[in-house]
Amino acid sequence: MIVALKANVSKERKHQLIEWLESMGLTVHVSEGMYQTVLGLVGDTNKVDMDLVASLDIVDTVKRVSEPFKCCNRKFHPEDTVVEIGDVKIGSGHFCMIAGPCSVESEEQIVGIAKAVKASGANMLRGGAFKPRTSPYDFQGLKATGLELLKIARRETGLPIVTEIMSVTDLPLFDDVDVLQVGARNMQNFDLLQELGRLHKPILLKRGLANTLKELLMSAEYIMANGNEQIILCERGIRTFDDYTRNTLDLAAVPMLHELTHLPVIVDPSHATGIARLVPPMALAAAAGGADGLIIEVHNDPLHALCDGAQSLRPEEYDVLAGRIRAVREAVR
Amino acid sequence: MIVALKANVSKERKHQLIEWLESMGLTVHVSEGMYQTVLGLVGDTNKVDMDLVASLDIVDTVKRVSEPFKCCNRKFHPEDTVVEIGDVKIGSGHFCMIAGPCSVESEEQIVGIAKAVKASGANMLRGGAFKPRTSPYDFQGLKATGLELLKIARRETGLPIVTEIMSVTDLPLFDDVDVLQVGARNMQNFDLLQELGRLHKPILLKRGLANTLKELLMSAEYIMANGNEQIILCERGIRTFDDYTRNTLDLAAVPMLHELTHLPVIVDPSHATGIARLVPPMALAAAAGGADGLIIEVHNDPLHALCDGAQSLRPEEYDVLAGRIRAVREAVR
Amino acid sequence: MIVALKANVSKERKHQLIEWLESMGLTVHVSEGMYQTVLGLVGDTNKVDMDLVASLDIVDTVKRVSEPFKCCNRKFHPEDTVVEIGDVKIGSGHFCMIAGPCSVESEEQIVGIAKAVKASGANMLRGGAFKPRTSPYDFQGLKATGLELLKIARRETGLPIVTEIMSVTDLPLFDDVDVLQVGARNMQNFDLLQELGRLHKPILLKRGLANTLKELLMSAEYIMANGNEQIILCERGIRTFDDYTRNTLDLAAVPMLHELTHLPVIVDPSHATGIARLVPPMALAAAAGGADGLIIEVHNDPLHALCDGAQSLRPEEYDVLAGRIRAVREAVR
Amino acid sequence: MIVALKANVSKERKHQLIEWLESMGLTVHVSEGMYQTVLGLVGDTNKVDMDLVASLDIVDTVKRVSEPFKCCNRKFHPEDTVVEIGDVKIGSGHFCMIAGPCSVESEEQIVGIAKAVKASGANMLRGGAFKPRTSPYDFQGLKATGLELLKIARRETGLPIVTEIMSVTDLPLFDDVDVLQVGARNMQNFDLLQELGRLHKPILLKRGLANTLKELLMSAEYIMANGNEQIILCERGIRTFDDYTRNTLDLAAVPMLHELTHLPVIVDPSHATGIARLVPPMALAAAAGGADGLIIEVHNDPLHALCDGAQSLRPEEYDVLAGRIRAVREAVR
Description:
alpha/beta; 18% strand
C-alpha cells in the first residue's frame, strides 16, 4: 500500500501517522520527495482501513498495490483451472455449452428440451427450480419438484444439471445436483457463499448487476477460502443507463477476468440482453472474445413459458446457433 | 396493460394473440386506430410475461399501467404509515434520528457512543454485529456478542436498537432486537424478506446499490405480503460512474417514494458518501428534502474504528449537526 | 402516442385534456376500459411535449408508439445503406477495416503506419489532427499540418482518410478529407451536425459516452434531415460504474442498431477498452457479433505516442489480428 | 506521480523505464521496497501519458498525486471566488436565485415571468433563446429574437440575464448578454470553451450528463487558462440506471466541488429531476446542502410551454418556494 501525504505536513503529524501504521504490524518505508512524502507499507495491509487512511486530512491519496484476492488470483496460480463435471471440462480450452429453459415446468418440457439441446451439442442442462423474482406475486418455481424433474432429464440424456440455489436452508435438496448456481442477486449473499465453500461440487457464480470485477473475485474468494476451488465465473450483463436491452453485456470482462484469475469464465447472453433475437450475435461474440462457455436459455414453447420467454431460443434456433458457435471457435483457435 | 401492435399486422395473427391473452383469463379491449391497433388488457395482468409479449414480432410496445406493488402502494392506502418502536415514531411528520457506530466493538465503545448520541438528541441506536464485507479476510463483526453489547447499551440509555441481519439462520439471535435492518446487498434476498414478513417487528429496508425505486418497493412488498407492515425504507446511495464519493446519494428518491408509497423513508448519508466531512451537508439536505429520519454513523475514535471509520462523525460533530438538523426541520415545517 | 388516464378522473377534466390535444391538431381515439380510459393520439405527435402530458395529475402514463427518427429509420427504408468512399464500401456485407494512430505526429510516422496497415488488409486510414482533450494542457494535435500529413499518407498508399472535426469553423480545412468523424463528446453538438448535413461526404458518427441508441439515431437524423445520408455509426464504449476498462463496450448495440436503422455500424475497440491487450478479443467479438467494420488504433512506437498509446496495437499485432478477423468473418457468414 | 512496479522485474527493464521517464524531463525517485519498487516522479508530469505507463507489462499501478487542474484549484487559491454581475454576487455566502422559463416565447411571456420572479426574490433571469434539442424536429428556440426579448425583460425589471450559447459562430449575438451559459451537452465542446475564455463576462458552466467532477473542473480550466476567471459551476443531474426521474441529482457534488475549487457552485433542480413537483424539495435540499444559488424554471402557463413544461413551476409556486428557501438558508447559516 502506498500513502502519499499532502505537501507541507508537519514532521510531528507525519511521525504520528507512521507510528500508528507501525502499531498495526506494518513496516513503513518513507520516501521523501521534493514536494511530497510517500509511505510504502509492507505487511498484512488487509488489516488497514484504506478509506480511513485516505480520509485523514494530511493524506493526499492511498493506493493498494496488491489485490486483496488470493485464492483466485492468477499471480499465485498461473495455470488455468479446469472445472470437471463428469466428462465435461470447462476452462483452458475446454468450452462448455449449457442450455435449457429458464424454469422447469413439467417432465415433458424439461426432458424434451434436454434431448433437443443435447442433439445440438449442448453438454450440460440448465433449468430453474427455485426462481428469484422481483415480485412476490410472480411464479417462484416448482422448487423441490423442479429438482426432481431435472434429475429425470439427466437420467434420460446423461447431461449434468445446473440449477440455482437461493438459500442456505435449501442446501439439503441440492445434494444430487451437479453444479450449483449463485444468481446475480445473491453474488454478495456472503452466508450462502461460505456454505457453498464447504461443498465438494462446482459452483457457477454469476456477476451481480452492479458489481465490479474485483467484487466478483472477492465473492469467489469467499467460496475458495472455505475450501471449494471449483468455481465457474459468469458474466451476465450489468445495469447501465442504456434502455434498449435489459442489461448491458460487458464482454471485455471476459479477457480481463482471464488476466486476473485462473478460473474459467462463461457468458450468459440470454439474461444479458433479455431479447431472444440478440442472443445469437452476442453468443458468437462471446465465443470469439474468448469465453470458456455459454449458458443459453432454450424453450420449446417460448410463448407459453412461465418466465423469461422473451429471451429464450427455440430448439431449432439453438441448433443453428450451436453450429455457428463451433465455426467461430474453430476460427479463433 | 396496453399492447400496441405494429402497423400492417394480419387479422389472423391479431386474432391469435387476442385468443392467447384471453386464454390467460384477461379481458381484451381492442381499439383500432388509423395506423395502429391497441389492445387494452383488463384482469390479473401479473400473470402475463410482459417481456414475452413485447418480444413478439407483431407487437410494437407493451406498457403496464398499474404498478405491480399493492400493499405498499399509496393509491390503495393514502395515509402515511407511522412505524412505532416503543415511544419512537417514524413517518407522517415524526422524524427519527438513528446514530451509532458502524460496528459494535466493545461494551465501553457502544455504551459510550449511545450515551453521547442520546444526549445530542438521537432516539435510536445503530451498531453492526453481523457485518457484510466484500472480502472474506475483513472483520466480520462480533456477531452474537455484538448483539448482547447492543442490549447493554439499550439498557443503559433506553434507546431502541437497530442492527443488520444477514441470514435466515441467524433469526433466533435477533428476538430481542427492536428493528431489524436489511442491508443493500440483501435487498433482493427474497428468502430473508419472506421470513421477516412473518415477524412482528419493524424492518429497516435499505435500497440496493443498483436497484430502482420499483424494485425497492417490490422488496417491501415481499415483507408486507407475508403480513408485516412495519417497514422503514432507506435511501443510501446508488452506484454510478461518479468516482469522488463512494456512492451517489439519490435524494430525489425521497419525495418520489413519498408519492408512490405510504411507508416512511429515511436517509443514510454516511454510507451514501463514505466521507465524514460530506455527512453534515447531506444530512441537512435530506432533512430539508423531506426525509422522515436520518441514520448516521458516529464513532468516538474514528482513527481506530474496525470498519468504515472514514465515514463516521465524532460525537461532538454529531452534536453540532443534530442541532442544525433541528433548525432545518423547523424551517421547512 | 398512447395516454392512459388515472382511475376516477372526472368527465370534465377528461374533456379538457382531449380538447387541448385536439387543439394541437391531433385526432384523439378514446377507449374506455373497465378501470381506465386510454387515449390514442394520431397525427403529428412530435409537436406534443410528452413529459408535460405525463406530468399532468390526471395522467397515469404516456407512451410514444412511433420513434421520432424518420430518415434513419429502417421501417421507412428497409434496405441497408451502403456508404461508399472511392472503392471502399461499408454496410450490407461490406466490411471496413480502418486503422491508424490516435494522433498524426510526423510524415514518417503516418506514412509508415499507413503502409503497414494497408499491407495487413486495412482499407482506410485514421489519424487525429484535431484532438479533443479533457485537459487544456495536453497535446491538442498538429491541426492543419496533421491534415496535410494525412493527405501525403493517402497519396502514398491510396487509402482514404478519416479524421475528426471538432468545430464548424474548421470546416474549410476538411475539404479534401474523405470521411469526417464526429467524436463522442460532439455527438450532440447540434450546430456541427447540421453543418455536416450540408456536405456531400460520409460522416463517421460516434456514440456519446452516456447516450442512448435513440439519441445516437436522433443525432444521425440531424445530419440526414439536412440532406446528407452517408452516415456510418460507431459504438465506442459507454460510461458505467465499471472501473477495469476505460469504458464498457456495448456490443449488443450493434445488432440492435441494425434492427432500428439501415445505416452501417462499426466498432472502435481501442477507445472502448483503452487497453491494447483487450483490443484483439473485442475486435474479434465485434466481427462475430455483426459489426460492419472496425476502427483500430495502430502505432509503430506506442511507448512514445503523444496520446492514447496505451490502447494502440503495434503494426505486427494488427497484422495478426487482421488475419483472425478475416477468419471469424468467414465463419459467421 | 507514483509508479509501482510489479514484483520480480529485472534490473535492466527497470533501468530502461527510468531512463525513458527521465528523457521526458522528469526526476525519478526510486524506492526499493521489500516486495516492490516504487518510483516517485517529480516535474511536469502532465506530459506523461499515465495510461501508457500503466499499460506496460512491468508496471503494477500508476497514481497521479497532483490534480491536473490549476487555475480553478482551491489549493492554489484558497479564498472563494465571488462572481459579480452588476449588483448580484455569487459565492462566499452570496446566494443567487436565477429563475425564468425554459424557452423565451414572447415579450408578454418573458416580461411577465421576469416581473413575477423578481417580486418573489429572484435576482437573475434565465430564458433559452438557442435550445439544444435531441430531435431536429423539435422547437429550437427563437434565437436572435429571443435574445432581444430577454433584453426587454431586463430593461423592464433590472434583472441581469443568463442564456445558453451553443456555438462559437453565435458569439456576436451575445455581446449584451450578462451571463453566458454552457449547457450540459457542450461541457466538452473545447473550441467553445476556449472562445469563452477570451471574453470578459461570467460563464455558467453546467456539468455534463456523464462527466466526473474532475472533467467539469478541467472544462472550467479551459476557460480560465484563456484568461476568464468568472465561472459559476452548475450541478444539474447525472445519467444513471434510475428511471423515475429524468436524471439523478448528485447533490454531494456541491460540498465536494467546494473542497476542490474556489469557484461558486449552483444547482438546477428543474433539469435534474424533470418533474415540477420534485423541484421544491430538491431546491430546499440544495440550499441546506451548501449550494451558492439555484436556477429554477418558472412558466406562467406550463401546459402550453413550448418545451420542458413538465419541470416548470408556476409563479405562485415559485413564490412559496422562494420564501422557504430563505428560511432554510437562515437555518443553516
